[in-house]
Amino acid sequence: LDNLEKAKLLIAEKDEELRKKEEEIAQLRERLGDVEQTVVVPTESQAEFEEKVATLEKKIAEMEAEKTQLIENIKAEQLVVITEKDKHIAHVVEELETARNDLRDAKNRIQELGEKEEEIKVAYLENQLSLLSDPDRLALPPPSSPKPRLDNVDETAKAQIRSLETKLQLANQSFRNSEAERQKCEQINRDTMKRVMQLESENGRLKGITEELSAKLRDSASVQVLEEKDARIRDLADERSRLQWRIGELSQWWSDAKWKIGELEAGVAHHRHMLDTANGKIQNLNDQLATALRASMCLAKGNLFPLIKLSFQLQGTADLIDNGSFLNWQCALKCDPIGPGKRGLMVDLPRGRHEFRFLVDGNWMTSSSYSKVPNGFGGDNNLLWIE
C-alpha cells in the first residue's frame, strides 16, 4: 500500500509537470507563431525595398543616358555653329589679308610712280638747263655769215625746238599717266581700306553673334533641364542610399530573428525531448501501477480474472522460467511439473492480447502449443488471446 501511495503521488507530480510542460510548449508555439508572422512582413518589405531600389537604379540609368544624349546633342550643335563661324571668320581673315597685300602693293606702286615722276622731272629740268647753258646754241651768228648758213641754223634750231616740244609733250603725257596711275592706286587704296573696315566690322559683328549664341546657350532651357536632371539624379541617389541602409537594417533584423527562431526551435526540441522522456516515464509508471494494482487486488480479493494454464513440453530436470507482457516483461515466474514431460503454471489474465515465452538453461524458447509472432529482436513470442 505504501508503494501504491508513492506511485499515486509520483503520478500526480508527473501529471502536474506534464501540464506545466504542455503550457510552456503552448506558449512557445504561440511565440513561434508570432515570430513567424512578424518575420514574414520584413521579407515582403525587403522584397518591396529591393524592387524599389531596382526601379530607382533603372530610372537613374535612363536619366543619365538621357542627360548624356542631350549633352552630346548640344555639343554637336555648338560644334556645327562654331565650325561655321570659324570658317566664315577664316574667310574674312583671308580676304582681309588679301586686301592688306593689295594695299601694300598699291603703296609700293605709288612710291615707284612718284620716284619715276621725280626722275622724269629731274631729267627734263636737266635737259632744259643744258640747253640754256650751251653758248653755241644761244649765240647769234656773225654778221659776215652768209644767209644760207643762217637759214641752216634756223632750221636746226627749229628742229631742236620741235624735238624738245615733242619730248616735253611726251614728258607731260608720261606725267599725266603717272598722275592717273597714282590716282588709280590711291582709289584702290581707299577701296581697300574701305573693304578692310567692312571686313573688320563684319568680324566684330560675327564675334558679337558668337558671344550672343554662347550666352543664349548658357541661359537656354537645355541647361536648366540638365540642372534639373542633375538635381533629380542626386535626389534619387540619396533615396537609393537611404533604401540600401534600410535594407541593411532589415537584413540584420532578419538575421537576428532567424537566430532567435533557431534558439526557440532548439528550446522547443529540448522541451519535446523532455516531454517524450516524461511521457515514457509516465507510461512506465502507469504499467508499474497497473501491475501493482493488479497484484494488490489479487492479494486482497482473490482472482478477478480467469486462471489460464500455460504449459511447455520439457524433458529433464532443468528449470523452466516464464516471462510475458502480462508481467510487463520485468519479472518472471517459475513453472512447476504438471505431468510427465510437461511443466506449466496458472496465471490470471485479463481480456486482450498477451505475449510470452520460456527460458530454459539461459535460452529463450517458445511452445508449439501456442501461435507465434515476431518479437522485433530476431526471435519469436507465443501469442494468446483472452476473450
From TrEMBL:
The keyword Cytoplasm does not apply. The keyword Protein biosynthesis does not apply. Residues 4-123 form a coiled coil. Residues 323-386 form the AMP-activated protein kinase glycogen-binding domain. Keywords: Coiled coil. It comes from the Eukaryota. Non-catalytic subunit of AMP-activated protein kinase (AMPK), an energy sensor protein kinase that plays a key role in regulating cellular energy metabolism. In response to reduction of intracellular ATP levels, AMPK activates energy-producing pathways and inhibits energy-consuming processes: inhibits protein, carbohydrate and lipid biosynthesis, as well as cell growth and proliferation. AMPK acts via direct phosphorylation of metabolic enzymes, and by longer-term effects via phosphorylation of transcription regulators. This is AMPK1_CBM domain-containing protein.
